[in-house]
Design goal:
- It is built from 7 helices and no strands.
- The protein is mainly alpha-helical.
- The chain has one domain.
- Helix 4 packs antiparallel against helix 5.
- It is elongated and about 70 Å long.
Length: about 210
């Protein structure tokens, strides 16, 4: 019984290599979560949350938009929690298709985020109460952003993802610049360049994956 043309192996070794590369890339795309769903929720959370922080706690304690003092932090925490849930669901769905060490790495890395942020929040809550409001806000924001940048760099190094690593470096640099400039401006800088940087990184990663 003769084989169909589609069932015959390619006669050209170069074509065989190209076919293998195409299948490998297609498999990678199926197993890799959409980077927009991983980065855009956080980018929007930072852009909106820190933007509201700037409007309520501006430079030199200026209030651009009058609102309750608790609202910016409450909104930011709610947005960050929502972003964490979205990315957690996306990562869990992708993880179901992967077994072995890679799956364990992803689970441990996600658990690291939760433990690190909980520990940081407990520490800051004990220290910030003795500081003036502008300094306390800067301490909370600066510490959380610094932790985010470090975890992004660790994740980029672990997964050999240059975009994620560069994003972590960029977040860290933006955070340091904002801290040096001072309270109020830090929130604006993190909102625009930190949150905006995540949106750009998600788009770039998606375009690269699509190619």
């Amino acid at each position: 019984m003769e084989a169909n043309q589609d069932e015959l192996p390619p006669g050209d070794p170069a074509e065989s290599l190209r076919m293998i590369a195409r299948e490998r890339a297609a498999t990678g795309r199926r197993l890799t979560p959409d980077p927009r769903l991983l980065l855009w929720p956080w980018g929007l959370a930072w852009l909106i949350g820190f933007g509201v922080y700037f409007l309520r706690f501006g430079p030199d304690e200026r209030v651009y938009v009058d609102m309750p003092a608790f609202l910016p932090l409450t909104l930011l925490l709610c947005l960050i929690t929502l972003a964490g849930v979205i990315t957690g669901v996306v990562g869990a769905r992708a993880g179901r298709l992967i077994t072995g060490p890679t799956s364990r790495q992803g689970a441990m890395y996600g658990f690291t985020w939760s433990v690190a942020f909980c520990g940081m929040a407990v520490l800051l809550s004990r220290v910030s109460s003795v500081l003036p409001v502008p300094s306390a806000n800067l301490l909370w924001a600066g510490a959380m952003v610094a932790l985010t940048g470090a975890l992004h760099m660790a994740g980029g190094a672990m997964w050999n993802d240059r975009i994620v690593y560069v994003l972590g470096v960029s977040i860290s640099v933006v955070n340091v610049v904002g801290i040096i400039i001072g309270p109020g401006w830090h929130a604006l800088i993190v909102a625009v360049f930190g949150g905006g940087g995540m949106l750009v990184a998600g788009l770039v990663s998606w375009l690269r994956m699509a190619r």
